[in-house]
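Intended use. Records like the one below are meant for learning the mapping from a protein sequence to its folded structure. Do not use them to infer anything beyond what is encoded.
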Amino acid sequence: MCPLIIIYNNLKCSPGYFLIQMCPLKKKSKSLDPKEVKPFLIEEAKMRNNQFQPLIQQYYMRLVDWIIKMNSDSLRAMNRNEEREFLERRGNLIVLGINLAV
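Structure written out for the chain above:
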């Protein structure tokens, strides 16, 4: 199978397509997988396109959940004894937010 290298989010690179364009084979090999790169890339693009909307909805729901937790009054420290727990929970949520952003 022709690999796709995901550079960042939806930015991808196909080494197989690059090699065919830059240094094509003089003879067609019978053992190529996939046999033709272009139809494979078209199918891969269609599959990724079908997955795009549900993926964005999933990211949106995770983001909304994170925003609600960050704005929640339950995270506020009530007294000095709860400050450590408050800072720990807030720190975990900040790390989660960074992971969502990346």
